[in-house]
Design brief:
With 160 residues, this protein is an alpha+beta fold. The chain has a single domain (5-159), classed as Alpha-Beta Plaits. It is 24% helix and 29% strand. The chain has 3 helices and 10 strands, in the order βαβββαβββαβββ. The strands form 3 sheets. Strands 1, 2, 3, 4, 5 and 10 form a 6-stranded antiparallel beta sheet that branches. The radius of gyration is 15 Å and the shape is globular. The model has no long low-confidence stretch (mean pLDDT 93). Its EC number is 2.7.6.3. One of its GO terms (molecular function) is 2-amino-4-hydroxy-6-hydroxymethyldihydropteridine diphosphokinase activity. Catalyzes the transfer of pyrophosphate from adenosine triphosphate (ATP) to 6-hydroxymethyl-7,8-dihydropterin, an enzymatic step in folate biosynthesis pathway. It comes from Limnobacter thiooxidans. This is 2-amino-4-hydroxy-6-hydroxymethyldihydropteridine pyrophosphokinase.
Length: 160
């Protein structure tokens, strides 16, 4: 789509029924008036990073987004709220997390939004599903996402 931007969202959750919530996120963005197309990666299970709690379920959603980065962030935050996300402490267990990973080749660092996501290249649970969707994807300022995967192979991630 000529007026759309290729964006990637990271989905995660480890409380309740994250698989069902992922289905709702995919359906929401498939029907969203600013989304011109969506594809979800395979889903993975991973141990929490820098936290305790049950294993996480993770995937990446690719979206052709017709709005700007802020409108995508607002759509993600509103959906998390609708699906029962309550923000407590950083890295706390949660039913759903919808993170903006990439917005085309944009880079920005504001109080509300940092793209590319600042830790995405350090997390196998992000890189594996992202590369499953697009093996040639680049992280602005960091190059090909695939070159960062070997440094994360010590993090256990399993296909569901």
């Amino acid at each position: 789509m000529s007026n759309s931007t290729l964006c990637y969202l990271g989905l995660g959750g480890n409380l309740g029924h994250p698989l069902a919530l992922f289905d709702e996120v995919v359906q929401h963005f498939a029907a969203h008036p600013l989304a011109a197309g969506t594809r979800e990666s395979p889903r993975y299970r991973s141990a929490p990073v820098d936290a305790t709690g049950p294993d996480y379920v993770n995937s990446v959603l690719e979206i052709q987004w017709l709005g700007n980065a802020e409108s995508l962030l607002q759509a993600c935050l509103a959906l998390e709220n609708t699906l029962g996300r309550v923000r407590t402490t950083r890295n706390a267990p949660r039913p759903i997390d919808v993170d903006v990973l990439l917005v085309g080749n944009e880079t920005r660092d504001t109080e509300q939004l940092t793209v590319p996501h600042p830790r995405m290249h350090l997390r196998r649970f992000v890189l594996e599903p992202l590369l499953a969707l697009n093996p040639a994807v680049e992280i602005p300022g960091l190059g090909l996402a695939s070159v960062h995967l070997p440094a994360t192979l010590n993090q256990e991630v399993n296909l569901i």
